[in-house]
Amino acid sequence: METTSTSNSLILVKWGIIGGLLGFLFSVITQYSGLAEDFSETLGWVSFLVTFLINVTVLFLALKEIRTQQAGFLSYGEGLGSSTLLGGIWGIVAGGFNYIYIQFIDDAVIQKQMDLARQRLEDQGLTESQIQEAEKITKMMLGPGIQFITIVFFSVLILFVLGLVVSGIMKREKPMFDE
Description:
By secondary structure, this protein is mostly helical. It has one domain (2-170). The protein is built from six helices and no strands. The protein has helices at 2-32, 41-69, 76-105, 108-123, 128-141, 144-170. The longest helix has 31 residues, at 2-32. The two termini are 14 Å apart.
């Protein structure tokens, strides 16, 4: 049983790294292509669908590989636990790359986001003092450390929720009287 648990963990690490890299790369692509600045409702839906497709595909492939590793069987609980653990690994990888990117490669990303937020606040007609208060909170929330924590938290949460459905689809219980 211990080898199955160890090999399942290695499978989850592999797919967590793949998912984290794909998520981070998609984020960088949207940032550099200017799509993040020219945000519209339609673009938001397209971005959501691409992210959703990446998440479901990676989760499905990870659970499929685990099920194959376990002679074709996967309980709902194992699938949901694996989904949650995959979310943690995924979040650490994506959050780590995001932290390194913001901290050491392109720290201007935060300033771009701050400028965009300021423009939106000005468009809403807020006073200068209201904008300054909002900028303090925004600057704190856009820091690389807070972003890392947020990415890990939401990766776990999203893959747990997706795992509720995907684990139900992927489950294949061992027969009760099978040894």
